[in-house]
Task: inverse folding
């Protein structure tokens, strides 16, 4: 679908509409022609946040946050509500001035006023940063003009983005009539119009249908494959784990960990869940060896914690068979220390006359690590 438009009529219509959030135009500066992208230095991080701190009076929103973003990298930013994620992203985008610390884009200090550096950024906020009175074409054309695109370059880029976000067939419908997923895709498309080097995505899939979520995640992967650096904030752990190369977990305004996902979850122990026919007497007999509770399906379970202290007593669990179930040695990859504890627990359960129906491992994952680091207390 070709994006036909008349500049005068489009701008006159825009003038009568309410303004979208400021984040929608963070990279925009109305210009006569498209400026060149900043030079890319060899070995220089695409973006670097250095000891950022932000306070509002006596309230410290961000205490000390530092991280780097490389070309083609997706950095997941995780944290509970109030951890300082959004404030950090707003400082990175130049929408907030840090109390102290620096933001570097392509090795150059960025304070929000450098127009050539601002053009490196594309921001997708949680709020819809679109004019819902306009259709997808007019939204993309308007923001494209703010980014400096003109003529055929503007129309061609609009067509490209419509194709990427999957809105070609609905491009001429008022965006206010779109489903939540379609609005999210248009929200994403607006940030792509000027081909930014860095994308800042603040929960871009919140409240969308599975098909739109899958499409948006594919769009993120495509941008990364083209060399775009992406900061991706989300509460959906499975999203972070599936698309991010690296994760920074933030809490109380500080970075708790910052590493690749394999390194982060590779060091997190796996618990063993022993599903049993009854739990009577287990707590008294096994003490701190186990936790008596429920498994993921609500059945009674004896939980053998994976984070056990080292021991010189090692056991081969490959031949263990107890009760009505069996332990497949190829499924749970457990340490020698945990193997010894498991053997002890199984022996004591046998003495109690308790049948172990099956044994499962709770594999290490990002959500488990997140809760270990930030706690399970509810945050408002």
Result:
């Amino acid at each position: 679908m070709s994006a036909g438009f008349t500049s005068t009529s489009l701008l006159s219509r825009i003038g009568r509409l309410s303004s979208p959030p400021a984040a929608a135009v963070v990279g925009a500066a109305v210009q006569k022609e498209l400026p060149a992208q900043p030079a890319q230095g060899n070995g220089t991080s695409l973006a670097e946040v250095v000891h950022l701190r932000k306070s509002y009076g006596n309230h410290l929103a961000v205490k000390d946050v530092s991280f780097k973003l490389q070309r083609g990298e997706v950095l997941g930013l995780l944290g509970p509500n109030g951890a300082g994620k959004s404030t950090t992203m707003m400082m990175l985008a130049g929408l907030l001035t840090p109390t102290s610390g620096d933001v570097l884009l392509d090795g150059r200090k960025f304070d929000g006023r450098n127009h050539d550096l601002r053009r490196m950024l594309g921001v997708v906020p949680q709020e819809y940063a679109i004019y819902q009175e306009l259709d997808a074409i007019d939204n993309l054309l308007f923001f494209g003009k703010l980014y400096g695109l003109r003529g055929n370059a503007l129309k061609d880029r609009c067509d490209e983005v419509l194709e990427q976000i999957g809105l070609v067939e609905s491009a001429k419908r008022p965006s206010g009539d779109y489903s939540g997923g379609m609005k999210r895709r248009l929200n994403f498309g607006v940030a792509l119009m000027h081909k930014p080097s860095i994308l800042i995505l603040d929960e871009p899939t919140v409240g969308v249908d599975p098909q739109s979520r899958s499409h948006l995640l594919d769009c993120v992967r495509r941008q990364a494959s083209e060399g775009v650096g992406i900061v991706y904030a989300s509460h959906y752990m499975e999203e972070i784990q599936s698309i991010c190369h690296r994760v920074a977990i933030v809490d109380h305004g500080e970075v708790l960990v910052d590493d690749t996902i394999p390194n982060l979850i590779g060091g997190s122990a796996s618990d063993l869940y022993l599903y049993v026919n009854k739990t009577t007497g287990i707590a008294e007999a096994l003490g701190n060896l186990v936790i008596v509770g429920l498994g993921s399906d609500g059945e009674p379970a004896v939980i053998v914690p994976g984070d056990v202290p080292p021991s010189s007593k090692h056991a081969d669990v490959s031949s263990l068979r107890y009760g009505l179930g069996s332990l497949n040695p190829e499924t749970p990859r457990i340490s020698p220390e945990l193997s010894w504890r498991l053997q002890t627990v199984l022996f004591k359960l046998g003495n109690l006359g308790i049948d172990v129906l099956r044994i499962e491992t709770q594999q290490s994952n990002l959500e488990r690590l997140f809760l270990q680091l930030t706690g399970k207390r509810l945050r408002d």
The CA atoms of residues 94 and 112 lie 4 Å apart. The longest helix spans residues 210-225. Confidence is low (pLDDT under 50) at residues 4-8, 29-41, 309-332. The radius of gyration is 26 Å.
